[in-house]
Amino acid sequence: MNVLVMDTSTERAAIGLSLRTGVHYTARTEAGRRHGRDLIPRLGAILAEAGLSPRDVDLFAVGLGPGSYTGLRVGLAAAKTLAYATGAPIVGLDSMEVVGRNAPASAVRISVVAEAQRSEVYVAEFVRAAPEAPLVETRGSRIEPLSVWLARLEPGVLVLGPGLDSPRIRDAVPPELVTSDVELNYPDGRRLIELARDAWASGRRDNPWLLEPRYLRKSSAEEQWDLKEKNEGGRMKDESEKRLKAEG
Questions:
Q1: Contact, 122 vs 142, CB < 8 A?
Q2: Are 111 and 153 in contact (CB under 8 A)?
């Protein structure tokens, strides 16, 4: 299969293209989360380098997060548009698992972390039965307090993830648990290709109309709207109770 993959959960988009011939192409955009400007041109460039058009792609795959709300929307919109225009199938991938697959084969316990703000982090955890063995998810991507995650870290765990860009997270993690290769902390085109092929081989087929980012919690705007509705509902209830008392 010709497989085109992308992930925009972090400030640098990761792109990969795997051909039926076995040749792989990978690319990343510059840091800065300008995915709306950079993603489509970079996708076009990697297809052109391989001598393909979007209609030559047999499968599209996209990272669903968790991560940057805006970035995830851009990546998913691009993947869904391409899948719809070409009629090719699409699969959504866990961005934290993509990063987890960056771990060296010798690492048997991996914890992936991303910044979630408000003293919280996005976390996913994986193990291997032995060095070189397949990676197995033990705790799926979720959001939890930074203090809770730190308390669970033990000697021998390898910590990866874009969350290590945050001083408050990096400074709190024992240095011996962190890799010196910072490139391993980001989604990579090769790992995206691997995960996409595994998902396809397992029978995964996602509905492009129903596929959504994995935000894990509401955006600030949504939370503010909910609070406004709650306050408005409380005000209306108080006014209703006052009217009933007055009528009684």
A1: yes
A2: yes
Q: 244: part of which helix (H) or strand (E)?
A: helix 220-247
Contact 105, 158 (CB under 8 A): no
The Cα–Cα gap between 100 and 128 comes to 11
Total Cβ atoms within 10 A of residue 28: 19
Q: Quote the pLDDT of residue 226.
A: 42
- Residue 2, Cα to own-chain centre: how many angstroms? 22
This prediction's pTM:
0.85
Per residue in 131-157, pLDDT (tens digit) is 999 999 999 999 999 999 999 999 999
- Token output for 171: 């400074």
CB atoms within 10 A of CB 59: 20
* Per-residue model confidence as pLDDT tens digits over 116-125: 988 999 999 9
The length of the chain in residues reads 248
* Predicted pLDDT at 240: 62
